[in-house]
Amino acid sequence: MVLAAPLTRKELAALAIDCLRRSGCEYGEVRFASYQTQRLTARDRSLDELSERRSSGFGVRVLLEGAWGFAASHRLGAGQVQRIVALAVETAKASRLAQNARVCLVPVAPERGSYVTPIQIDPFAVPVEDKAQLLLEINERLLHFGDQGVRKVRSFLRFGREEKLFASTEGALIEQTIYRSYPGFSCTAVADGDAQERSYERPPLNIGYEHIDAADLLAQVERVATEAIQKVRAPKGPQGVRSTLVLKPSHLFLTIHESVGHPTELDRVYGYEANFAGTSFATTDKLGTLRYAAPGLNFRADRTQAGGRATCGWDDEGVPAQSWRVVEDGILVDYLTDRETAHRLGRAGSNGCAFADSWASVPMVRIPNLGLEAGPAGGARTAALAEMIADTEEGILIDGIGSYSIDQQRRNFQFGGDAFWKIEKGKIVHMLKDVTYCAMTTEFWNRVDALGPASELEQWGTDICGKGEPMQIAQMSHACVPVRVRDIALGSPG
């Protein structure tokens, strides 16, 4: 007896769409996805972690009489697809009973196509031995500074590959393959009963193994170790005073993420997201009028930028990747939307911010790549980093990220950093430690009086942005330039 070949993902997707159309729903979609991640971590002279995880399955989402239903499975097959479609439909019927208002979606053209992250070297094709050897070499060089106070060292490599097939009852059929790479290391120095860490990372990007530049990583070892030793012996930063801050992109990206990215997620604005990380002060009645930042500052969302951690061809609702301003000339002009929230806002279409972190997760609004545009050549606020420092009578230069907190409306925040230097009379004089600053979101961004040129733009970002319950993890870049911010409070608020 000859057994029939198992159905391909495209054939299973076609079956799901046929079942959805026959169910009587006004909209339905199926998303097949597989994920592969690899993580290597070395601590001191040992490989502490070597893990490779794979996950695959499919999820079905259906809109029936204005109510959502969702179901998912890790098992593939015609019978399982039919069962999951039926379960999603039944879930929508149940959801309808508790729903106050019908869900409506903005239209989207039925896209058909494919997208693959441009890479030179497949990170999963590189031998694990080569990766481990690089990490151990970095650590060994860091430990050479042990007699000067370096006590603990850590290095890591992280890689990811996502393969997704999306189909909808509107006629969409989209395939995407996304690659991710991220390296870094840190060391901890100890002196006089204190311990301080200093780190170096190449930003998390959608790129191949070519991002793991061994020469660059090794070239940073001596500087990072030396700065850790200086930092642990440095005086503590001032508290309870106001100061000028000069912020490098390696630090500023997180401030952008927390105080501009999350507040402009439209589901958060509408209160869909409240229990985990709060809602937003940037409500729709302020759209077009809120002075979010100083004149001349522009924040752009862009899912098309090369290497961006949220870069793709389409979002997880089949909406094409786009680029648009969220804050223009300092004014709030737009939000981050999916098809549902865009309809509620009265927009003609979504700007493509739907993302699900798994085949078993429901898509939600997530921050895309969102960054601070460079100052224009000859602009009144445009100044190179060196010029900002030279023009600062007294202040603090901050590099890298540290502790942070922000209130439940994204209004009041506190940030630390990884390294700090005292500026006096236009010169860097010495390192500081334990510096934090606090401000209100709009107060902070309106106190920016200088921003760097395009030549100083850096594409930093995060691979661990949590949202929702159950929590989903998303990844995004925040390309930005250095800025100078005047009259900011140092230390804890109040």
Strand and helix layout:
Blueprint: H1 9-22, E1 27-43, E2 46-64, E3 67-73, H2 78-96, E4 112-116, H3 128-143, E5 150-168, E6 173-191, E7 194-201, H4 214-219, H5 221-233, E8 242-247, H6 249-261, H7 266-269, E9 299-302, E10 323-328, E11 331-332, H8 339-345, E12 354-355, E13 364-365, E14 370-372, H9 385-390, E15 394-399, E16 404-406, E17 412-415, E18 419-424, E19 427-432, E20 437-440, H10 441-446, E21 448-451, E22 458-467, E23 472-480, E24 483-490
Number of helical segments? 10
Structure class: alpha+beta
Counting DSSP E segments of at least 2 residues, the number of strands comes to 24
Average pLDDT:
97
**What gross morphology would you assign?**
globular
Radius of gyration: 24 Å
**Terminus-to-terminus distance:** 79 Å
Q: pLDDT under 50 segments (min length 5)? A: none
Helix fraction bin: 10-25%
Beta fraction: 35-45%
Largest sheet: 9 strands, mixed
